Task: inverse folding
């Protein structure tokens, strides 16, 4: 309130006085910080033991060699003094150098004749005798970004993302025959699917956040990713609505939004699969791929739900399928070749924001329909069915 | 392990020395050293073996395991009125930062600034007086394995358990002959031992054991550097891999006697295995007749014994715990048998 009084009393005028008034608190702040740093501010802040943190970014296995990419997530420089692998002190080198500056990465290199399929536990001792552990649950040569592994990651993305989404799109002609109530049910079902996917993506982001160096504030990063994506997509869709296009065009843009949201979700899924493949946690057997296909076929269904009463054309359908499915391929490349927990958390947060924004869009579409004819049970059963559908198909994967 | 040629070994040793010198110059105490241990040059997997990177700064530690091998403290000797020999020793507990593994400094508790503490040596029947000073920040004591009155036992509730800044003199007759040990008996006992408060206590039989060319003392222990009550590193005479970097040199046919003591905390047993050879074993050293002719013996904590052997062929021969895990975590060394 006071702010308004001041601005109305005087003309808005940015003069030297304003500049001084703006910078004065900053100058005083600088003084306080200086005073605190030089005197300690009366607090005895010397820690009894040094605080050190080392996060493991990834492990790379080559024939006869193991490399561990580490990041110093602590407040000070960190040095690795010794490395123990499976209860043997082992010679190692660190590049670029043994001293790892704050937030920098380094590669710990071991010449070690590891065996295919066996498990390894690596313990790195810092010079302050703080142990940092890495586990290699199943040892096998880490896929290099060559054409062969590139192709196999592409295939994984294709099976998990593109094919099921397109399969879902093939329901289009059949579902067009449905009445309004059934279409609302399908929209609600899609919303249910997306709520489930959104929660799933968020959970994955939170789970991965644990592996991110503390100074990168992964939870805050998730918040930024979710909120920014949500409001960005919201702004885009509002702008399209405001341009006064036909309802059909609006429904089409919602369908595209759904495709984008699902695409971002599938990017996260691809990341997870690529990274898991990389560390050998996943034996991407036929069974698992089948599970993903069954679950993701519902995603294709979700994309077409808003445009069932329109004639979007084959080109639109193909493009939406690509937007929804192809990111799984890109995700598996990133996850497979340069898994970075921080990046993955960010992608997953973006996916969460996108998915929830799309739920919001669908809710608005449903509202338009239910304004003409109330059908609360249809909406309820649609949403719950959507969530249950993914939960049940998820049982096949998890 | 493949046989290592002497030239390979020297090359590795030279690299280590060079690295250590460089690191010492930086005041970084071997942290930055990328030393090549014996048989660890290049990328030959068949030659690869467990080894620490770098070498500890022995000068800063204030002791060198190579010297400890043959450092016997006979005390200040005088003769009592009744003709008996009196031996007096000075032992002080000191809190000391010790680089137990290259690059890792451990806040140790020591007797006279070294781990293991001084090897106290005397002859059966001597009168022993140990002037013990607590220069540390915790209560400590000396508890000797031997025969003595309860008041000299150094356990809680006896006068030998002294606080910081205090002193006490333990006095008892040296008996029975054999290889024994001493350690602090303050509570919590496991931590007081694991921190480094132990040493060998050798009582020779009257007239001594038969003479040999080399008499060595080896105290087996470990270090729990991250305080999780599990050993992270193992060694004889405190520093892991020391005798792998600096083999114990003997000659073909020379007789060797090892006074071996196990004071390893946390783990149930320890062992000693000699490569390409057999030794006579005298459990606790209390007999002059060997009990066993073998190449591997097992000791639980505070068990000890005497090993006697000589080598027939020149070369580099390993000795290590045959708890393989301990061996690869530091309890490994070499005898270099010269022609």
Result:
């Amino acid at each position: 309130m006071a702010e308004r009084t001041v601005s109305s009393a005087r003309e808005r005028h940015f003069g030297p006085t304003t500049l001084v008034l703006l910078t004065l608190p900053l100058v005083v702040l600088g003084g306080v910080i200086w005073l605190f740093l030089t005197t300690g501010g009366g607090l005895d802040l010397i820690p009894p033991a040094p605080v050190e943190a080392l996060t493991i970014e990834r492990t790379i296995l080559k024939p006869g060699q193991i490399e561990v990419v580490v990041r110093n997530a602590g407040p000070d420089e960190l040095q690795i003094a010794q490395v123990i692998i499976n209860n043997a002190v082992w010679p190692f080198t660190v590049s670029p150098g043994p001293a790892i500056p704050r937030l920098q990465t380094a590669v710990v290199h071991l010449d070690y004749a590891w065996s295919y399929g066996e498990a390894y536990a690596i313990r790195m001792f810092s010079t302050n005798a703080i142990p940092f552990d890495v586990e290699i649950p199943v040892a096998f040569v880490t896929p290099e970004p060559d054409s062969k592994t590139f192709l196999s990651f592409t295939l994984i993305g294709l099976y998990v993302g593109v094919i099921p989404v397109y399969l879902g799109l093939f329901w289009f002609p059949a579902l067009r025959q449905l009445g309004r109530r059934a279409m609302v049910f399908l929209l609600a079902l899609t919303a249910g699917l997306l709520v489930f996917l959104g929660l799933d993506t968020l959970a994955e982001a939170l789970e991965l956040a644990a592996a991110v160096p503390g100074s990168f504030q992964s939870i805050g990063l998730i918040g930024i990713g979710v909120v920014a994506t949500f409001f960005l997509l919201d702004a885009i869709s509002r702008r399209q609505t405001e341009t006064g296009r036909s309802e059909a065009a609006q429904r089409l843009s919602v369908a595209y939004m759904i495709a984008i949201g699902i695409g971002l979700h599938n990017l996260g899924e691809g990341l997870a699969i690529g990274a898991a493949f990389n560390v050998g946690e996943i034996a991407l057997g036929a069974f698992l791929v089948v599970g993903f296909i069954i679950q993701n076929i519902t995603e294709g269904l979700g994309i077409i739900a808003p445009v069932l009463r329109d004639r979007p054309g084959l080109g639109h359908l193909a493009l939406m399928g690509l937007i929804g499915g192809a990111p799984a391929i890109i995700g598996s490349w990133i996850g497979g070749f340069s898994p970075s927990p921080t990046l993955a958390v960010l992608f997953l947060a973006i996916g969460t924001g996108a998915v929830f924004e799309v739920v919001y869009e669908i809710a608005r579409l449903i509202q338009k329909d239910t304004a003409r004819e109330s059908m609360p049970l249809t909406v309820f059963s649609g949403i719950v069915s959507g969530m249950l559908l993914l939960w049940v198909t998820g049982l096949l994967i998890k | 392990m493949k046989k290592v040629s002497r030239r390979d070994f020297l090359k590795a040793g030279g690299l280590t020395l060079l690295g250590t010198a460089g690191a010492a110059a930086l005041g970084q105490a071997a942290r930055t050293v990328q030393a090549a241990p014996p048989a660890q040059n290049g990328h030959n997997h068949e030659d690869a073996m467990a080894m620490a990177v770098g070498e500890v700064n022995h000068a800063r530690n204030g002791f060198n395991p190579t010297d400890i091998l043959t450092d016997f403290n006979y005390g200040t000797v005088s003769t009592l009125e009744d003709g008996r020999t009196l031996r007096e020793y000075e032992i002080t507990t000191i809190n000391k930062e010790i680089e137990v593994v290259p690059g890792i400094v451990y806040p140790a508790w020591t007797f006279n600034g070294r781990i293991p503490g001084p090897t106290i040596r005397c002859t059966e029947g001597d009168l022993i007086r140990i002037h013990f000073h607590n220069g540390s920040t915790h209560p400590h004591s000396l508890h000797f394995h031997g025969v003595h009155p309860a008041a000299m036992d150094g356990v809680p509730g006896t006068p030998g358990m002294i606080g910081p800044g205090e002193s006490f003199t333990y006095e008892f007759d040296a008996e029975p002959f054999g290889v024994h040990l001493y350690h602090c008996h303050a509570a919590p006992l496991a931590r007081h031992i694991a921190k480094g408060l132990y040493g060998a206590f050798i009582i020779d039989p009257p007239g001594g054991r038969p003479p040999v060319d080399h008499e060595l003392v080896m105290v087996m222990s470990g270090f729990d550097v991250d305080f999780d009550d599990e050993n992270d590193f193992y060694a004889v005479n405190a520093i892991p891999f020391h005798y792998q970097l600096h083999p114990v040199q003997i000659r073909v046919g020379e007789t060797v006697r090892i006074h071996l003591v196990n004071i390893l905390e946390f783990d149930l047993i320890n062992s000693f295995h000699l490569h390409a050879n057999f030794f006579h074993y005298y459990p606790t050293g209390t007999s002059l007749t060997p009990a066993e002719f073998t190449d591997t013996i097992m000791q639980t904590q505070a068990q000890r014994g005497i090993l006697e052997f000589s080598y027939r062929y020149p070369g580099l021969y390993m000795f290590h715990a045959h708890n393989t895990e301990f061996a690869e975590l530091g309890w490994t060394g070499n005898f270099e048998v010269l022609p």
